[in-house]
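Internal tracking record. Fields below are filled automatically when a chain is submitted to the structure queue. Please do not edit lines marked as system-generated. If the sequence contains nonstandard residues, flag them in the REMARKS field before resubmitting.
Queue: standard
Priority: normal
Entity type: single polypeptide chain
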Amino acid sequence: MVAGGAPVVPAPRLRLTRRGRAAVLGFFLVVNTTCGILLASASRAADPAPGVPAAGPTAVVGPHDTLWSIASRHDPGRSPAAVVADIRRLNDLSGSVVHPGESLLLPRAE
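SYSTEM-GENERATED OUTPUT FOLLOWS
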């Protein structure tokens, strides 16, 4: 009771009608489908473009490393120039300057 003699009436519980439950279910289905589409398109973005070699291991650039030395060490059976071109394509490098500590994707060794 409250001062003044009026009883305190608890607020009624929220009850969903059949239409309300259908609306809530529809909302969650739309959200779930949207998330699925976004995640699927994000995973497709990781697929290599045609003509770009598939990425293999990674290498961290050392203090005196060059793309040529990394290419020679990574795939000695191939021409270093071809491996350097693949490394540049995989890492979207416009030039051939790399910095110590930089991580590079390497093409799969053949």
